[in-house]
């Protein structure tokens, strides 16, 4: 039966169910995906950072003690092995983990912030149209997003590292006897009482230089090494099917470790002098006249005392410990994202 004229006027055109159902879903999926990616970066980055910190912390303690030896006294440690030996003799092996509570928080914040801000950097490049969305970024862009992440992370990291450094390098009384080890809350109270809130960012320029340049190298080196290893693997493919399988699966675990280790070594070596100056600034006792030195003046004082070699004091042990630490960080982070996805 034909519809009446009135029915034709009042009836609404039929709309496919798929169109009405898919529109709101499509609009909601993108923000939801972005939120879940951010949560993954923060949660899994935190776990990876804590694991890496437990691996590297004894070496970091030795590094800071080597870096922060005062200008006006003979060197207390002849090198990394001597520092290890003296530290273990004085405090036992667990003494090398002195003050780890603050760095554990710092490691969780640092690593999660790095992955979080690096993700924002990637999204910014896609949003600005510098790279087609859905494709991997070129290696040059990965170095850029790493620097972007490092700049923002440095402001989170400086206060935590200041507390860590003051705990790792205990002040000495007259006669060279070390004072009782400090606790994080005690350090926080002392810094705030003498320098106010601004005092927690003492050494910020050194952290900024190290993190911006170092994180560019960290992400960039990891992706560069990954690409080189993947290209080498694909050359050995005997068929198109095997090639597609290689492209669809992660690198073998040992190759992931190599890529992560190369990232850590590049991060620590390239900008080590900035870290040395920062450590010296942050370990100067509260109330010492040298505490008011700027980044440039601290660098000049170190140059006068020890020359170029002084800027790389502790570099060897730092690069050594960064290899396994960084390898673990990337393997844990990538593994969690692959096997426990939140999306």
Automatic annotation (TrEMBL):
Keywords assigned: Coiled coil, Membrane, Mitochondrion, Mitochondrion inner membrane, Repeat, Transmembrane, Transmembrane helix, Transport
GO molecular function, one term: L-ornithine transmembrane transporter activity
Superkingdom of the organism of origin: Eukaryota
Record flagged with keyword NAD: no
Start and stop residues of the Solcar repeats: 36-124, 137-228, 251-339
Membrane topology: Multi-pass membrane protein
GO (cellular component) term, any one: mitochondrial membrane
Subcellular location: Mitochondrion membrane
GO biological process terms on file: mitochondrial L-ornithine transmembrane transport
Coiled-coil segments on the chain, per record: 222-249
Keyword Coiled coil listed: yes
Protein family membership: Belongs to the mitochondrial carrier (TC 2.A.29) family.
UniProt name for this protein: Mitochondrial carrier domain-containing protein
Organism name: Lasiosphaeria ovina
